[in-house]
Amino acid sequence: MTLSIQSIGRRFGDTVALAQVSLEVKPGEFVALLGPSGSGKTTLLRILAGLDYPDVGTVSLDGDDFLATDARKRRVGLVFQHYALFRHMTVAENIAFGLRVRPWRLRPKRAQIASRVSELLLRVRLDGFGNRYPAQLSGGQRQRVALARALAVEPQLLLLDEPFGALDAQVRTGLRRWLRELQEELGLSTVLVTHDQEEALELADRVAVMNNGVIEQVGTPEEVYFEPATPFVCEFIGRVNRVAMRRGTGGLSAAGWVPRDEPWHGHYPHATAYIRPEHLEIGAQDAPWQGVVRHVYLAGSIAHLDLDVSGVGTLEADVASEDLARRNLAVGAQVSVSPARSVLFAGENARWSWQAGAGP
Amino acid sequence: MTTRASVVRVLMILTSVAVLTVFLLLPLAVVFSEAFKQGLHAFTRVFHQAEARSAIWLTLLVAVIAVPVNMVFGVTAAWLMARFEFRGKALLGAFIDLPFSVSPVISGMAFVLLFGAQGWFGPWLIERNLGVIFAVPGLVLATVFITLPFIARELIPLMQAQGSEEEEAARVLGAGSWQMFFRVTLPNIRWALLYGVLLCNARAMGEFGAVSVVSGHIRNLTTTMPLEVEMRYNEYDYVGAFAVASLLALLAVLTLAFKALMEWRYRHELAAGGIHR
Question: How large is the ipTM?
Answer without folding.
Answer: 0.82
